[in-house]
Specification:
Strand content of chain B: 5-15%
Helix content of chain A: 40-55%
CATH topology of the largest domain in chain A: Rossmann fold
Radius of gyration of chain A: 25 Å
Largest sheet of chain B: 4 strands, mixed
CATH superfamily of the largest domain in chain B: Glutaredoxin
Radius of gyration of chain B: 18 Å
Largest sheet of chain A: 5 strands, mixed
Strand order of the largest sheet of chain A: 10-9-13-11-12
Oligomer: heterodimer
Structural class of chain A: alpha/beta
CATH architecture of the largest domain in chain A: 3-Layer(aba) Sandwich
Largest interface: A-B, 56 and 40 residues
Number of strands of chain B: 4
Shape of chain A: globular
Order of helices and strands of chain B: HHHHEHHEEEH
CATH topology of the largest domain in chain B: Glutaredoxin
Number of helices of chain B: 7
């Protein structure tokens, strides 16, 4: 352990650490998401096998974060040749060690296409269509060793910033980059920072919102688990810009690995002089505390999150005043999402102008999507803003399995909407999605095929929101429950056409009268499915059938019906 | 205040130790405090909350208010092992209901209930963020991905 006393010492340490690691063979085992499918045994098998072969000196086994192609889990990458294997079982490990680690050969049956031609990420369409910038180090670095993170460039932007930049210059770079908040709303990041900085106060707080509660979203989880130092670095830069000395990472307790990795990363950063007083000898001090959420979706909302950190029930309060004016403990507070912070080091390193070269007119940079549902290549995907839904679902995702038809993609979680096939060529950015009734949200993309019932999906999301409503305001507490009851009735075959009108009217009331974002956006899944899939609603209430065959109380769709009649 | 050694009493030593370790407990430490108490007892015994209230000066009503708001806290003794069947969107469209049914049937209990021997309890969870391996089940802190209903007994057997 070295306490770094200056920016130069950081650069020197990076050079030493990178030199020491140079040319070393590494076996990278995803030990975060892939843990769900046996990665711990794989890692153990590699450690054992490498030791037995007497290769300890030249080969390092690294437990990394997510490589992205989760459909191939558990995933292993062998460096320096970047050979990627999936569906690895402990019994295959001796073969991989003998052939690939030692012999430089490919074990064909473990590659993406079970052939030599698809042995490297660059040969796999899933990666070919991506631009990994924010995720660059996720899956590459050992998230539990700051040395490895530094060798891969971590804290370089903090060092650059503390070697002479002023807070206003930092905000200027972020303004030039035009980055918008990745948590869902898409608010310009610089404006929030400048607003927070502008209020006179004894203390300003910085909060990293890692309460990733949207069902179907797991990019923040992957960032915290796979590259926690990248997030911490972004927080240090933001703290310097807004003039904060105290920060919090508010992370879901449902993410135990993320909690552990970020806690460890904070401790290590402190030991290295990258957090705490006098960071890199600059005189600037900033420290971070981890707070675990206690299981409340609404705490992803800024004022509820703040209430939770203060030790209160997580109910939102009316705004204004905004958090940047009166947030945590009544002080100006800047809250950004995990992915937003993870973008910041890049903006400082290359400059806001370079950053702004990628993306669309109104949405710059890349966006990470969590691709899941009825799609071949599920996983973590990073593409430039402006990529189309087709690029992601069919290019990166490889399309729908089992020859089924694409029906819709659900974007933005419970606050978002279902985008139908007609919009497959829509370039994705904050504004285009809003126009079609969805939102960027945090970036969850759930692909649905013909076996998904859109009425059931609407019911699913409303039931989620009714369940998670904090109860503070009546339209949300009661309105969502009523919406759920109507949808229940429709799914049980008791619905009438009049119910559809009631749904629309009530959805509109809930949307326009609730207190916070949770309630205001809760009806979106209902409204978007009613707009694009009204025929399915009509099938439920008029024909009493469920075209997807999901709603059990209703008669099955046509073919099965014909069969039973014959 | 209940004395030590009584049959139906709650041992207050763990909560006292937690309060000592976290002292001085300010209001902002309330949730970490409840999390620490629950880590020791497995739930939040009324007696322990009363002790925490006396010691910190935070009204008992407030402790209960917070404890009942968040899904993580239990006011009753809880099972040794918590089974969470994810009800996230991806799991929903990839057959989570069949998994939930298999768990319920295997244990003979439903959501929010605990088996008679206190070995297992079932909870639903909004999303475990493991959507790429849907459907997903979490037992305590372990994730199980791409689960099929027939695998459930084997998975659960691991947890004593």
């Amino acid at each position: 352990m070295t306490r770094l006393g200056s920016a130069d010492e950081l650069f020197a340490a990076r050079a030493d650490l990178a030199a020491a690691a140079d040319g070393k063979k590494r076996v990278l085992v995803c030990s975060t998401g892939c843990l769900a499918i046996g990665a711990r045994d794989i890692e153990a098998a590699f450690r054992e096998g490498i030791a037995e072969a007497g290769l300890d000196e030249e080969v390092e086994v690294v437990a990394t974060g997510c490589h992205g192609l989760c459909a191939m889990a558990p995933v292993v990458v062998v460096e320096p040749d970047d050979v990627m294997y999936g569906r690895v079982r402990p019994k295959f490990v001796p073969d991989v060690i003998a052939k690939t680690v030692q012999g430089g050969e490919i074990v064909s049956r473990l590659t993406y296409g079970r052939d030599e031609a698809s042995a490297h990420p660059r040969d796999i369409p899933f990666f070919e269509h991506q631009t990994k910038r924010v995720l660059h180090n996720v899956g590459r670095v050992d998230p539990q060793r700051i040395e490895d993170a530094i060798a891969h460039g971590a804290y370089g932007s903090v060092a650059k910033m503390l070697s002479g930049m002023q807070p206003d210059e930092v905000i200027d770079e972020v303004r030039t980059s035009a980055i918008r908040g990745r948590g869902g709303g898409g608010f310009p990041v610089w404006r929030k920072w400048e607003s927070c900085k502008g209020y006179a106060a004894d203390e300003r707080y910085l909060i990293c919102n890692a309460d990733e509660g949207d069902p179907g979203a797991f990019m923040d989880r992957a960032l915290l688990e796979g590259d926690p130092h990248g997030v911490i670095e972004g927080m240090i830069i933001a703290a310097f810009a807004v003039g904060s000395t105290k920060g919090y990472v508010y992370v879901r307790a449902e993410y135990p690995i993320a909690v552990r990795h970020v806690q460890l990363a904070i401790e290590q950063a402190r030991e290295w002089g990258l957090l705490g007083e006098d960071i890199l000898g600059s005189g600037f001090g900033f420290d971070i505390e981890v707070r675990e959420g206690a299981g409340a979706f609404v705490c992803g909302e800024a004022s509820a999150l703040v209430a939770s950190i203060e030790g209160r029930r997580g109910t939102p309060r009316p705004k204004p005043p905004r958090m940047t004016e009166q947030g945590l403990f009544g002080m100006p507070t800047n809250i950004n999402n995990v992915e937003t912070f993870a973008n910041i080091p890049m903006i400082i390193a290359e400059g806001g102008a370079v950053y702004a070269q990628s993306g669309t007119e109104g949405s710059k940079g890349t966006k990470i999507f969590a691709l899941a549902g009825q799609v071949k290549n599920t996983g973590l995907v990073e593409v430039p803003m402006g990529a189309t839904i087709r690029d992601i679902v069919f290019g990166v995702g490889g399309g729908i399995p089992r020859g089924r038809e694409f029906k819709a993609v659900q974007m933005g979680g419970p606050s978002g909407g279902c985008v139908p096939a007609a919009h497959l060529d829509l370039p994705i950015d904050y504004d285009s999605l809003r126009e079609v009734g969805a939102i960027m949200g945090s970036g969850g993309m759930i692909v649905m095929d013909e076996t998904t019932c859109m009425v059931d999906i609407a019911r699913y999301f409303i039931s989620f929101c009714a369940n998670e409503s904090c109860g503070a305001c009546a339209p949300c507490r009661l309105g969502n429950v009523r919406l759920e009851q109507i949808l229940d009735r429709i799914c049980e075959g008791q619905g009438t056409e009049a119910d559809l009108d009631t749904l629309e009217q009530l959805a509109d009331v809930v949307r326009s009268t609730t207190l916070c974002g949770l309630g205001q956006t809760a009806p979106n899944p209902v409204l978007s499915t009613m707009e694009y899939f009204r025929d399915e609603y009509l099938a439920h209430v008029v024909d009493k059938t469920c075209p997807a065959g999901v709603c059990k109380a209703l008669v099955p769709p046509e073919p099965a019906l014909a069969g039973s009649e014959a | 205040m209940v004395g030590p050694g009584g049959t139906d009493t709650v041992d207050l030593n763990p909560v006292r130790r937690v309060l000592d370790e976290m002292a001085p407990v300010r209001h902002e430490h309330l949730i970490p405090l409840l999390q620490a108490i629950q880590a020791d007892y497995g739930y939040l015994p009324r007696e322990a909350l009363a002790e925490a209230s006396t010691s910190t000066g935070i009204p008992l009503s407030h402790l209960f208010g917070v404890a009942t708001f968040y899904a993580q806290f239990y006011l009753e003794p809880h099972a040794r092992h918590t089974i969470r069947v994810c009800r996230g969107t991806a799991c929903h469209v990839r057959g989570r209901q069949a998994i939930q049914d298999a768990v319920d049937a295997h244990l003979g209990i439903g959501d929010g209930e605990t088996t008679e021997d206190g070995r297992y309890g079932i909870e639903t969870v909004a999303c475990l963020g493991t959507c790429f391996l849907a459907p997903v089940v979490m037992v305590d802190h372990d994730y199980y991905g791409s689960v099929i209903p027939g695998k459930i007994p084997e998975i659960l057997e691991e947890y004593e």
